[in-house]
Amino acid sequence: MDTNNKSIDVYERLADVLDATPQGFPRMKSGVEIKLLKLVFTPEEVSLASFLTTAYEYPADIARRAGIDEEDAIVILSGLISRKLVRMQGPPSYPGMPAPPPGKDSLFRLGPFMIGWYEAVMRIEGKEFAELFHQYMEEGGSERILAPRPGVLGVVPVRGSLKPELMATMEPHLDIDAHLQRHERFLVMDCVCKREMEALGKDDSRYPLKRCGFLGLPPNTPLGEHVLDREEADQLLRKLEKMGHVSNAAYGFQMSAESPQFVGGCNCDRYACGVFNNHYPSQPSNYRVIKDYDKCIACGICIDRCPTYAHTDGNRDDGMPEYNRDKCIGCGVCVIACDPEALEMELVSADEWFYTPKSMEEWEEMRAKNLAEGK
Fold first, then answer.
1. For residue 216, which phi and psi values (nearest 5 degrees)?
2. pLDDT digits 0-9 by tens, 260-318
3. Which of 246, 284, 345, 358 meets the CB 3.0–4.6 Å disulfide criterion with 329?
4. Domains of the chain
5. Integer CA distances (angstroms), 237 to 70, 145, 146, 176, 266, in order
6. Is residue 27 a contact partner of residue 140, using CB atoms and an 8 Å limit?
7. CA distance 24 to 8
8. In this structure, are residues 279 and 203 in contact, taking their beta carbons and an 8 Å threshold?
9. Rounded to two decimals, what is the model's pTM?
């Protein structure tokens, strides 16, 4: 699309630019995506953002394309960082410890819709935004955004689901315990999906609101409602694991790390989670559940906990819950709750193995390649 054509509506232009990214922002016949943009961004903000790309650039280059003053561009870009429509390169900011103010030497890029400005905006907006987003996903947004691989989220096997001999095969970005040992403070955020369901008056989740992130913070970060120490973070994680939460890491999770490692993610339940409810589950882990029917006592706890309904009341003659491996995403939430140990995890075959991208840029390259090939 010609982004220099000033006669084109700025909201339409930004929508097309966002849709051209690997994450996607598909257009709908109803134009509901334009309503989403208009609800939270001004024409001035949208106009400048539409000249951004997925590559980091200096504000002078962005301003030149947009035909505005560099200082004005910096002010607008700065105002969009907290709403994630714009990303600034560098270490993230923390509660009570904001990042240095953007300047001429800062680098900026366009932020994705998911995982990106949708989550940031949903945490501050209310019913109107939630209704528009729900309409957008129902009209087809969910398929274009959530179905392609790699997924926008990747499954991290729940702690305790891998036997000792499998722990040696675990990639660094799956090691939650190592993450807990690296930091003394952790940022735990409200679940944006549950926040959306509450705004819509549809929340029937039995799970807590404060449960996502667990991002490592500097040791001198003041403790508070959403800033926990190591013991508090570990206790909350164990509570969530016991309740059946699936740990999902957003790709780009190594962006602020010196080497591949777990840095945080979502903790999803199958009742409120937008990913599971839209029937396009997260990118599976490199493990799958295997079932020993001889040990099964038909207690049904696997049926109650599985987010993708891989365990169901089937038509088996022995009355045992039926397991469909093709639906398994390797989260392990059924394994840790199976008292007779009829379930365990195994490593996938070489043909099924998913190579995990080491940065957001690599994820975008993989996604773009797969989309071009129709995968």
1. -70, 135
2. 889 898 999 888 888 888 778 889 999 999 999 999 999 999 999 999 999 998 777 88
3. 284
4. 10-146 (1.10.10), 153-282+357-369 (no CATH), 287-347 (3.30.70.20)
5. 45, 28, 26, 10, 11
6. no
7. 20
8. no
9. 0.90
